[in-house]
Amino acid sequence: MSETKTIAEINAKLKRGDAVVLTAMEFKAQVRQGRKWRVSDVDVVTTATRAIMSGTSAAIVMPLPEAGRGAKLRNLWLNGVPCNTGLSPDSESDLIDVIINGTAESRDHHGRYGGGHVLRDMIEGKTIEVEAETTDGKSVYAKVTIDQFPFARLYATRNVYQNYSAFTNFRNEQSYLGMPQSIFSSRPMPRLKSITTSGSGELSPLANDPDGHVLRSGWKVLVNGMPGTVIGWGTRSHPGGRNLSLAADMKGMDPQFMGGARTSHGVEVTNGIAVPIPILDETVIENLTNTLDESLEMKISDISDRQPVASATFDDVWKDASLKVQFRPDRCIVCSFQCAAEYYCPMQAISWREKTIYQDLCIACGACTANCPGGAFTGEDRPPLGAIGAVPALDTKLPVSFRMSNRRRALMLAEMLKDQLVSGAFTLSGSDLSLEFEQKEIGAEGTSP
Ligand code: SF4
Ligand code: SF4
User: Fold this and answer.
1) In sequence order, which residues have a C-beta less than 8 Å from that of residue 337 and are 6 or more positions away?
2) Which residues pair with 263 in a beta bridge?
3) Which residue in 165, 270, 299, 287 sits closest to 215, CA to CA?
4) Percent over 90 (pLDDT), the chain
5) 352 Cβ inside 6 Å of ligand 1
6) What's the CA-to-centroid distance between 348 and ligand 1, angstroms?
7) What is the dihedral of CA 310, 311, 312, 314, to 10 degrees?
8) Ligand 1 and 357: CB distance under 6 A
9) Around Cβ 121, how many Cβ atoms within 10 Å?
10) CA–CA distance, 171 with 372 (Å, rounded to integer)
11) Can you tell me the mean pLDDT for 245-268?
12) What is the DSSP string of 341-395?
């Protein structure tokens, strides 16, 4: 008879302090050594991802007494980023509701600051500048911090993709030449000279639960370090290419797992999500055992039309990969009036003047290693002029020029969730609401973060 466990039984073990909790990487390391896991061996495996996640917004409630009670707002900007409002200040409290979209772009810093940046600035406790216009033409200015918000919640319409394509410029089509921007690159890509990737491979939450066997509506997860909940499948989910819709309160989030980013197609937003996988039955064990970097297919698509042109595995991206990037200023050849590595860094994590990488911002994407002709940026402990990796495909080795998933911080999140489970601070939610698809299969798989 096959073994099974219930959520209640696992929660009881977590509360007693005798549950066995492993990160996905710890689980898989033993799979590679030949271990055949059984349901009774382990209770929870923690998975995580940290990456660019376009479908992110936030709803906040903030005071704006400067608008005057009863006035109706027509437009509102936070640090120059346009937001949705239009509600009258509350007649009792001067509070207004504001929706901010993670990919909204600041009118003041074209392509370099947007909704994701505002969200991180809020979490870091920075002062946010508010500008609003009322319907009767009055302009209102104020300064606020997150401490003044009675409500601040992050909503994900589509995060945590099950799988992603990698991208290269294969066809060099006219349409691409005419519109060389893409959210999948930090700058235009010459033909067959580089590859951009996304996805945390065997650490990925949905890769480890590919059919939604354990995930439930109401399932508790960590969103940027704070407890959050799965609402349902995300807006572009389809069998084989699932993603999640999530919600989590923003106060208390850890800024190192989130924030704004910049691609060659404008501003983006990043999140870090950790998901516990309860070991309920043999199917869960089988899914975790089979989800290894070397067995996970990574389609390679053309960046112009997003159609697959080749295939690799996540092992090609992550095996022995540098998870951190270092700056060696002694190798700088002062190549231009503007440091190319600094200019194209999607996180604005480089200060050439200060000769440093701000590691709390850096997502180890490797764009600097690809853009610095002097070889001053390398994967940690890698030789000069070494990019952060190369993927064998299309009869060549394509250097990774933009790795959109940050496995180092995903690992940190998986560890954080493990620690919280082991300490009893985090228990599993017990909802019976399974996630059901209501739509027919759509589009190409996993090409849109
Ligand atoms: S891109 Fe590299 S070589 Fe050029 S200025 Fe920047 S650090 Fe120096
Ligand atoms: S790896 Fe380089 S380009 Fe990428 S975020 Fe870090 S410093 Fe910036």
Assistant:
1) none
2) 266
3) 287
4) 70
5) yes
6) 15
7) 120
8) no
9) 20
10) 26
11) 94
12) HHHH-TT--EETTTTEE-TTT-----HHHHH-TT--EEETT--TT--S-EEEETT
431: CB partners within 8 A, 6+ apart? 216, 217, 218, 219
Beta bridge partners of 367: none
- Centre of ligand 2 from the C-alpha of residue 377, in Å: 9
Has residue 362 got a pLDDT over 90?
yes
Tokens of 73: 């707002």
Our answer on whether the CB atom of 260 is closer than 6 Å to any ligand 2 atom is: no
pLDDT digits (tens, 9 = 90+) for 155-177: 999 999 888 889 998 887 654 55
CA atoms within 13 A on the CB side of 264: 16
Rounded to the nearest angstrom, the distance between the alpha carbon of 400 and the centre of ligand 1 is 18
CA of 348 to the centre of ligand 2 (A): 8
Taking 3-state DSSP, the helix, strand and coil percentages for the chain, each rounded to the nearest 5, stand at 20, 30, 45
- CA 76 to the chain's CA centroid: 27
Q: Rounded to 5 degrees, what are φ and ψ at 277? A: -110, 110
